[in-house]
Write a structure and sequence with these properties.
Order of helices and strands of chain B: HHHHHHHHHHHHHHHHHHHH
CATH superfamily of the largest domain in chain A: SGNH hydrolase
Strand order of the largest sheet of chain A: 2-1-3-4-5
Largest interface: A-B, 40 and 40 residues
Distance between the termini of chain B: 16 Å
Shape of chain B: globular
Oligomer: heterodimer
Helix content of chain B: over 70%
Helix content of chain A: 55-70%
Number of helices of chain B: 20
Radius of gyration of chain A: 22 Å
CATH topology of the largest domain in chain A: Rossmann fold
Largest sheet of chain B: none
Shape of chain A: globular
CATH class of the largest domain in chain A: Alpha Beta
Strand content of chain B: under 5%
Distance between the termini of chain A: 83 Å
Strand content of chain A: 5-15%
Structural class of chain B: mainly alpha
Number of helices of chain A: 16
Radius of gyration of chain B: 23 Å
Largest sheet of chain A: 5 strands, parallel
Number of domains of chain B: 2
Chain lengths: 397, 473
């Protein structure tokens, strides 16, 4: 090839590459801003971890770490005020994230650990949630395609380099996702599109339910407008530093907003929606039979060890279960107990199971698994705070 | 190191810079191509590089010996060495376990329970492609249609040339070897064409990956589940697979041709809008052209062509063509099915009262012929892709029961529409390249915008971990 033609070819390729990368990053920034795309919460939380680790507070730091069940079901405001009532000065944070199984949760846990170690500080208490249906074989199968996405954004450059030396093809891909694609892989976009397709609800053909959905959208629209008014600049953050990881807090909301929120939760508890939610959880998570994946349990145990290395106290918790929709058979219970035993034996961390808490009923859930972000999370958080305060008192005695 | 990975991009940029700015003389360039191709291949399994070298060395020296031999019997014996080496490699790595297992099944059918040992060998990527390519050289020299070349380096570099090494197109020695006698500098026009083909190929591969999920929903299930699928679900899944295999393979071929063009080599077209074919014979003139013409020239004609036992020759060629794709009964059945279709096409074309229909230029008759052809091809893909004969039977039955049309499932309709859209998009891209290539490439701004658009699409969407289907063949 003549040098000039080769240079021209390279110039064209370089130009196309730069334009495409800029376009992609621009479009993704807009999409993340609008929809979160499942990663905005991580990004916002990650930005605040150094501040949390650096904060010269005398309060005891409590991190509640886990899945979307924690994200929806733990209220830091409620926890701290309940602890305060009992004479404990705590500052708690909600580190619950959607869509991560223990393998990916562990990657992020390591980053929190790194930050605290860098500051030479320890977390006082970490409550690590064990979400049973995130540790199943079925769930692992469905999460496989997102492995590169989470590794790309959670691994350190050194870890990425280690992956590259073992598997250059994967390593280069991970580097490109991280540094060229602003942490957004094409798999993430594709899975978001697939999710949008799945949400194209077949039961919409039922006229009655279509009307329910229409009304729900209407309530949602009004609620969002109210939230904008109540929260002002705080509205829209997915990991809100003021609310310490929660998306909202009762004390910022007007009665009108709270009423609308309750109305929305009632609408979400429609039997057709819940039935579909259960089917989806069975299909993608094996939520009823819970056939566990040993490797994911290993990862969970490693995650507990990671937190133990940077905390004074680590506990494993299970969030309340919606017994109206999910009941375990004896076999499932045995499987779950075996997992508890393994965790206790291998980590020494106590396992606190809130699945059967009598204080929680079906009206505290927004679907088959998640507590409602206000009333449901408050009831559970009070319960959590009460137990922790009792335990702390006993410990100090 | 598939073409659609960032690692290949890194590899190719380094290779391109070295090729154009460092290794500018002929021999160093050949060494660069050889080493580069081996590095590329080592991305899968470096041990199997030895097989490529073995195939190249044997055929190189056998071709020289054939060229120098005076007696026909000696030439024949030498050719037998070449063919048995290449087919032997294929046989051991690709067909040995299948043959042993089939023999055990056959004996058990007659009541003899035999436990056959299996080799359990990994199939070397691209072996079906480079062995066929290498064989074509010795056969051509034997037939006297091509003179043997001297220069083992040149021959090995041509055989292992990375753009076409692992999934073709299957090049004839007479197409590629002369190009390796000098390294020709491409013009800016051919470089632009190369960039266009790479982008189009990458886009088709991306679309093919998106079609993998609806195809798997129909094919990766047991036969009972397959029986319960509706007509629309089955049609969508089968069409998705037809689109997937086309986008995947033709996309790879386009990228291979484009990359070769950027390096100054011309590789012939491997697909020409196959789903626009108006008959099964026409389909095979457009689908995987390098394999179908290879089978025609080196197998069908060797068997006697249409001079004697024409239909038997067609059937043997198509069955072996089916088996070329893999050692499994479904590939054999697929080859047999296409053999039947081609024979039927020839039989019908000789019936006098059908002549008007066959040669008609009317649009509605062309549309009818196209619909019949695509229907036959879709049935063929069921045989090709189904997990087993029960599933294939159930899917074919579903395809003929439109009464089970689901009106209550909008998501099936939506996925069906998206599948059709992806299918059409691939063809629009191909048609645009074939029909408007010069117009597009003569307008730099149009070309640049098109390249940016296609690359942006591929950058944003897809599941790049999907392997190329034809790598397994």
């Amino acid at each position: 090839m003549k040098k000039s033609v080769a240079l021209l070819t390279l110039a064209w390729c370089g130009f196309i590459f730069v334009v495409v990368t800029i376009l992609y990053n621009g479009v993704m920034t807009l999409i993340i801003k609008e929809t979160g795309l499942g990663i905005r919460r991580f990004k916002q939380a990650t930005e605040h971890v150094p501040t949390i680790a650096d904060n010269p507070t005398s309060k005891k730091i409590v991190i509640v770490y886990g899945s979307s069940l924690i994200r929806a079901g733990f209220s830091p405001d409620t926890f701290d005020s309940e602890m305060d009532k009992r004479g404990f000065d705590t500052i708690s944070y909600n580190f619950g994230f959607d869509g991560l199984n223990p393998e990916y949760q562990h990657l992020y846990a390591k980053r929190i650990k790194d930050e605290f170690q860098r500051k030479g500080r320890k977390i006082d208490t970490v409550l690590v949630e064990l979400n049973p249906f995130q540790t199943t074989l079925t769930r692992k199968d469905h999460d496989q395609s997102m492995s590169d996405q989470w590794h790309a954004i959670f691994c350190t450059p050194t870890e990425l380099w280690d992956i590259t030396t073992e598997d250059p093809q994967r390593g280069v891909r991970l580097f490109s996702i991280r540094y060229l694609k602003n942490g957004v892989s094409s798999e993430l976009i594709t899975s978001a599109l697939r999710l949008a397709l799945k949400l194209h609800d077949p039961t919409l053909t039922s006229k009655d339910y279509a009307e329910v959905v229409k009304q729900r959208r209407h309530i949602k629209k009004h609620l969002n407008l109210q939230l904008k008014i109540d929260l002002g600049e705080l509205y829209g953050n997915q990991w809100n530093f003021t609310f310490r990881g929660a998306r909202m807090s009762r004390r910022y909301l007007s009665q009108k907003t709270l009423n609308l929120h309750e109305k929305l939760m009632n609408s979400l508890r429609h039997p057709i929606r819940l039935e579909q939610d259960l089917k989806k959880r069975i299909k993608f998570c094996d939520i009823v039979k819970l056939r566990f994946d040993d490797k994911l349990i290993d990862e969970f145990i490693k995650m507990v060890h990671t937190f133990q290395s940077v905390s004074h106290q680590v506990e494993v918790i299970l969030l309340p279960q919606n017994h109206q929709w999910i009941q375990y058979s004896l076999k499932t219970k045995n499987r779950l107990n075996q997992v508890f035993n393994r965790i206790v034996t291998e980590t020494g961390a106590p396992v606190k199971n809130y699945q059967n808490s009598p204080e929680i009923n079906a009206n505290h859930f927004s679907d088959t698994t998640h507590l409602t972000p206000i009333s449901g999370s408050e009831v559970f958080t009070r319960l959590l705070a009460r137990n922790m305060a009792i335990q702390s008192s006993l410990a100090s005695d | 190191m598939p073409f659609n990975t960032p690692l290949f991009l890194v590899f190719f940029i380094i290779f391109f810079v070295l090729y154009n700015f460092v290794f500018r003389k002929y021999v160093p360039r050949l060494y660069l191509i050889l080493v580069g191709s081996f590095v590329f291949y080592a991305g899968w399994n470096y041990r199997f590089i030895l097989l490529i070298i073995l195939s190249a060395v044997v055929d190189y020296y056998v071709a020289i010996a054939i060229g120098n031999a005076t007696k026909q019997s000696v030439k024949k014996a030498l050719l037998a060495i070449s063919i048995s080496t290449n087919l032997g490699l294929l046989g051991i790595f690709k067909y040995a376990d299948f043959t042993l297992q089939s023999a055990a099944n056959f004996l058990s059918f007659f009541g003899f329970q035999v436990s056959m040992p299996t080799l359990g060998l990994v199939l070397p990527v691209g072996i079906s492609f480079y062995t066929f390519q290498s064989m074509s050289y010795t056969i051509d020299v034997y037939r006297g249609v091509f003179t043997y070349r001297k220069g083992l380096l040149q021959f090995t570099a041509a055989l292992s040339f990375f753009p076409q090494l692992v999934a073709g197109p299957i090049l004839r020695a007479r197409e590629i070897l002369p190009q390796f006698e000098t390294t020709v500098n491409p013009t800016w026009a051919s470089a632009k064409h190369g960039l266009l083909l790479i982008s189009v190929g990458l886009t088709k591969k991306t679309l093919a990956d998106l079609l993998a999920a609806p195809a798997a929903a129909v094919f990766d299930i047991n036969s009972t589940a397959a029986a319960s699928l509706s007509w629309m679900e089955t049609f969508t899944g089968v069409l998705a697979f037809a689109g997937q295999i086309y986008g995947d393979f033709s996309g790879y071929s386009d990228m291979a041709i484009g990359i070769a063009l950027l390096l100054g080599f011309n590789i012939p077209m491997n697909f020409r809008l196959p789903y626009c074919a108006l008959s099964p014979v026409d389909f095979w003139r457009r689908w995987h052209i390098s394999l179908s013409t290879w089978l025609r020239d080196y197998l069908y004609i060797s068997l006697g062509g249409k001079k004697k036992r024409r239909y038997l020759n067609i059937m043997i060629t198509m069955v072996l063509g089916g088996l070329w794709h893999g050692a499994a009964w479904n590939y054999l059945a697929w080859g047999f099915y296409h053999g039947c279709l081609i024979i039927a096409t020839h039989v019908f074309s000789n019936i006098s009262f059908l002549q008007n229909f066959i040669h008609s230029k009317r649009l509605w008759i062309k549309l009818l012929k196209w619909a019949m052809t695509i229907y036959l091809m879709l049935v063929g893909w069921i045989i090709f892709r189904a997990e087993n004969i029960d599933s294939a039977f159930n899917l074919v039955m579903n395809l003929h029961q439109p009464d089970s049309l689901p009106v209550s499932s909008p998501i099936v309709w939506l996925i069906g529409q998206l599948t059709i859209a992806a299918f059409i998009a691939m063809h629009v891209l191909d048609y645009s390249v074939i029909r408007y290539e010069e117009k597009i490439e003569s307008r730099p701004v149009v070309l640049l915008v098109l390249l940016i658009f296609l690359q942006f699409f591929c950058f944003s969407i897809g599941t790049p971990d999907q392997a190329f289907i034809y790598f397994q063949f």
